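User: Can you recover a sequence for this backbone? Please restate the input before giving your answer.

Assistant: Of course. Working from this structure:
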């Protein structure tokens, strides 16, 4: 092991006493005291002043102890990193133990400094930006990548991070990091047309570690995907409308050959399915692009729930389920009525579609003064728990054959997810195979409007 300080002679001399008891060192002082007393006693007997010489022997011993104490104090106060004075007895043992503990502490400190240096060297080499922020929100340290991605300069040390990164989205994330476990994507302050993903973690109270990395390529690919979906969806809409019109015209002819009629019926069914897919893609694209549109309408929830209940009855004609409506909340919602109605309707139609005939579907609106809950409970086929984390992904299907039979596009729950995100809400799903499912939309208190 690396030793930053030399081992003093005292440590070598006293090494054999490392595991000795204090009595071993005390005996040296007792021997000295006994020697002085014997010498003093002999001199005292010889000159006829026995007790005076004994007192003188004690005084000499006491003076030697005071000298040792003075040397110990002087070393600790003025020269703690030098080799300690070479003393015997208890004071020598004390010096040795203090110096040994001090030396071990310095070795540990040297190791910690080396470890910190290696950690800093590693952070400096990272392509990701790393910033340490203290409890007062001031910048303590950063690596070179932070200068490129976040625009931090040498003069920014000790500066409040919120005065450097002033984007409203970052300030909101900084103040509510627990509500965004995936972090925040924002424009880079160091490069134009570049995007960074920012993730913060608390440590040591309110201090924070900020990590940011360049996601420009991923952002551009995502934008290309969105543009492609938007363009292809718009381009498909016109030919599908034309095809649907001609197919409907041919299907309505009375003298149509039965063989052709079956073919036209199948074409019409697939055209409707493609139309539904295109409409869902366009709706999803609009939801993604309209994030900044205000969602501040006051929605009359009893009226909306009754409308959804009536629509569910119309959709339920071919299924014959028992439909129930359960409203025990006096709160309305603040948001977009059309978007929320679309999301709620999506959940209801899914429950009806995936429940065997003659089942039960219950639609509910509740609150507990802190949160609002829109619920859809069914007695349907249920979902294996392993699929639940991925249900809101685009085109994710638990059973592809079943989805085709029911006419699903695989985008319904993705649309629900985007609508809820724009209303600061989230979806909770409880389900067991062959025992039904409960879909619960949870709204924060800020989205509830208490009716007086």
């Amino acid at each position: 092991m690396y030793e930053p300080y030399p081992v003093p002679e005292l440590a070598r001399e006293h090494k054999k006493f490392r595991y000795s008891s204090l009595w071993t060192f005390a005996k040296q002082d007792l021997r000295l005291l006994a020697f002085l007393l014997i010498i003093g006693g002999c001199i005292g007997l010889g000159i006829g002043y026995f007790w005076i010489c004994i007192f003188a022997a004690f005084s000499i011993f006491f003076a030697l102890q005071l000298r040792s104490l003075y040397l110990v104090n002087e070393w600790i106060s003025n020269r703690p990193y030098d080799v300690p004075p070479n003393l015997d007895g208890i004071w020598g043992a004390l010096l040795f133990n203090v110096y040994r503990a001090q030396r071990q502490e310095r070795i540990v400190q040297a190791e910690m400094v080396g470890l910190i240096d290696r950690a800093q060297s590693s952070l400096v080499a990272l392509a990701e930006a790393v910033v340490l922020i203290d409890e007062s929100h001031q910048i303590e340290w950063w690596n070179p990548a932070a200068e490129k991605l976040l625009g931090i300069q040498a003069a920014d040390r000790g500066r409040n991070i919120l005065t450097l990164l002033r984007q409203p989205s970052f300030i909101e994330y900084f103040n509510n990091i627990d509500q965004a476990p995936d972090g925040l994507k924002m424009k880079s302050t160091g490069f134009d047309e570049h995007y960074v993903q920012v993730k913060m973690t608390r440590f040591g109270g309110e201090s924070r570690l900020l990590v940011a990395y360049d996601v420009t390529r991923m952002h551009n690919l995502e934008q290309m995907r969105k543009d492609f979906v938007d363009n292809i969806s718009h381009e498909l809409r016109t030919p599908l409308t034309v095809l649907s019109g001609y197919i409907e015209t041919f299907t309505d002819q009375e003298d149509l050959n039965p063989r052709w009629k079956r073919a036209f019926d199948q074409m019409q069914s697939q055209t409707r399915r493609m139309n539904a897919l295109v409409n869902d893609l366009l709706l999803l694209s609009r939801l993604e692009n309209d994030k900044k549109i205000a969602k501040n309408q006051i929605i009359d929830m009893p009226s909306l729930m009754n409308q959804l209940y009536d629509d569910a009855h119309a959709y339920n004609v071919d299924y014959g389920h028992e439909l129930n409506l359960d409203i025990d909340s006096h709160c309305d919602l603040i948001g977009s009525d059309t978007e929320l109605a679309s999301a709620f309707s999506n959940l209801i139609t899914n429950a009806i579609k995936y429940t065997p005939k003659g089942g039960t579907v219950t639609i509910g609106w509740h609150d507990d003064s802190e949160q609002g809950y829109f619920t859809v409970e069914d007695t349907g086929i249920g979902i294996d728990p392993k699929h639940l984390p991925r249900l809101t992904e685009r085109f994710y299907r638990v059973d592809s054959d079943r989805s085709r039979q029911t006419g699903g596009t695989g985008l319904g729950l993705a649309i629900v997810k985007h609508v809820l995100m724009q209303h600061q809400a989230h979806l909770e799903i409880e389900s067991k195979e062959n025992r039904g499912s409960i879909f619960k939309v949870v709204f924060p208190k800020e989205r509830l409007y208490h009716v007086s």
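That completes the design. The radius of gyration is 41 Å.
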